Amino acid sequence: MTLISNQIPDNLFSNKLYIQIYNSSFENEELKNLLHLLKCELNDENLKQLIDKQEFQYPLYEINNIEIIARINDIKFIKNESNKIDSLKLAVENYLEVYKITNETKYFIRALQLVNKVKNIFKDDLPKYENEIIDVFFNSKSSFERLKLIENLQSLINSEYQRDKLINYSLEKIKKNNDDFKFSDSLNYIDILKIIKYYTAIECKINKALCLEKDADYENSNKESNTYYPNVLTKYKNALREVKGIVKANDIKLRLESKIKIEQKLYIEMLNHCGISYSNDSTIKNIIKSLSINDFSSAFSSLITFPIIRKDDVQKASKTQTSFVGQYFQYFVHLTNKGTVAGIANEQQFYENKIRDYSRGIVINVIREIKSLMDINHQEISKDVIAMMILKCESIFIPEERVGFFIEGIYQGFLNNYSLAAHILVPQIENSLKHIIELNERSITKTSNGIENDNSLGGILDTEDPNKMLNGICDDDLINELNSFLVNGNSTNFRNRLCHGLLTEFEADYYGIYIWWLTLKMIKQTDQFFKLQ
Fold first, then answer.
1. Residue 232 located in a structural domain
2. Quick one: how far is CA 162 from the chain centroid?
3. 65/9 Cα distance (integer angstroms)
4. Which domain, by its residues, includes 36?
């Protein structure tokens, strides 16, 4: 026991303490128990989850490190043990001591959260704690830290004098940040003013909309020529979302709608510059109108149920496109923008690719319109909500050890970070298709010169192979669309161009929403696309 205690330093805290214990735990299994405790975020929900884990137990050896002592007593209080008040006092005392040493506000916040749970025990110290909250607020290094402090501890601020200090400071900071073009900091102070009840909920939304508009206007005024800035349109849309339904903000709404239309027109111009066809605007409007979207729920339902491109429709349309002169040419060659050959097709395949690319453009722009309506009709979705949605699906498309990747990728899509979402999801789609094949007790390997190797995504999605691995276990329309979009050199070839750094930032964003949408459909509609034989 003494040997174990000697491996726990008394003078290290936070990340440094965790790293030290982590390094020592390779040689001592008992120390691994402490890692769960030190990794746990300091809030009720995460600490309760830790308690429920069977692998966590109280350390049986002597510990002098005050952070570990604070965390252990925090858990004892949450578990409602017989000496819970003494545990509470010890936790508060030690958390505050760790804060003084590290200056990390998470310890201060947790200490006073515990004070707030049993105020009568600390009633003589409440004025002192209130002053300390104000001091920590002014000494914090960032607006985000200040927001977290007020979010968690505003109920301990009861003095009008202290409240007025917070109000005046926040108002001054908003003005200064706006002058310095630090609009994200201004948004945090607007939230602080709402929490301490200076702004009403409606006033908060209006002020956030105006701040987002200023942010977008500033970025707009500093644009470089022939460059697309997707954040501008996103910020205008976020601003419009804030004031949706607020009658007295009609002037702001009209102004934002006008700016959004200008940005959307620039977006279409950028599509044309990149050689991406954009379907008639009236076509998109008619499709959206037919979906009868009136809120977030109906928009999300439309997003999930909107159909993928059907192979029969493509083949039927392409037969009307073949030309008289086509019979004199054996091949149609697809060149990259650098003049290299990306793919070779016959006339029928050429027109099928053209039809499919055009149809995909319609789908992408319908998806963008639906997602825009979702953004306007709903506040930001947390990663926890996405995790719950994905886990509830219990999709065989997602291997158990890959759930985190899908949660992050789908979450980034909901944040409109489509390029990042694509970079996360594309490798997972390849792995998931192999997972589906293996669940059906089929081999994913190919043999060459006596050596077995995993098939590439191109091999898995090969539509020319009559014995393709996904035959009978994956929807044929899905196989054809994934092949065309991800690996076909005569079409978008998204996977290969993404992985080899051949996409422009704009193209990664434009096509990224499509792979995000396809992944969402494969998760939510697994039973429609995949089978277990």
1. yes
2. 37
3. 7
4. 2-248
Residues contacting 285, CB < 8 A, separation 6+:
none
Bridge partners of 333, per DSSP, are: 344
pLDDT digits (tens, 9 = 90+) for 70-116: 999 999 999 888 889 999 999 999 999 999 999 999 999 999 999 99
The answer to whether 68 and 8 have CB atoms below 8 angstroms apart is yes
Number of neighbours of residue 177 by Cβ within 10 angstroms: 19
Give 446's DSSP letter: E
Encoding tokens for residue 24? 């020592």
* Selection from 251, 265, 176 nearest residue 213 by Cα: 251
Residue 363 lies in a domain: yes
Do 320 and 236 fall into the same domain? no
Give the count of beta carbons closer than 10 Å to the beta carbon of residue 494.
23
Given 230, 248, 266, the domain boundary residue is: 248
Residue 181 near residue 207 (C-beta atoms within 8 A): no
Structure tokens at 455: 């098939």
User: Whose CA is closest to 463, among 487, 438, 480, 478?
Assistant: 480
**Total structural domains within the chain:** 2
Q: How far apart are CA 81 and CA 445, in angstroms?
A: 56
* Mean pLDDT for the stretch of residues 290-307: 90
136: CB partners within 8 A, 6+ apart? 105, 108, 149
Of the CA atoms within 13 Å of residue 502, those in its CB half-sphere come to 14
Distance CA 7, CA 24 (A): 7
Q: Are residues 187 and 286 in the same domain?
A: no
CB–CB of 494/426 below 8 Å? yes
Indicate if 315 and 234 belong to the same structural domain. Answer: no
Which helix (H) or strand (E) segment holds residue 269: the answer is helix 250-273
Q: Are 508 and 494 in contact (CB under 8 A)?
A: no
Q: In whole angstroms, give the CA distance from residue 371 to residue 362.
A: 14
User: How far is CA 433 from its chain centroid?
Assistant: 23
Do 201 and 306 lie in one domain? The reply is no
Query: Residue 377 phi/psi, 5° resolution?
Result: -95, 10
| Over residues 482-493, mean pLDDT | 84
**Residue 383 token pair:** 């990663």
Q: Could you report the per-residue pLDDT of 189-210, keeping only the tens digit for each?
A: 999 999 999 999 999 999 999 9
Listed residue (307, 306, 293, 308) closest to 374, CA to CA: 293
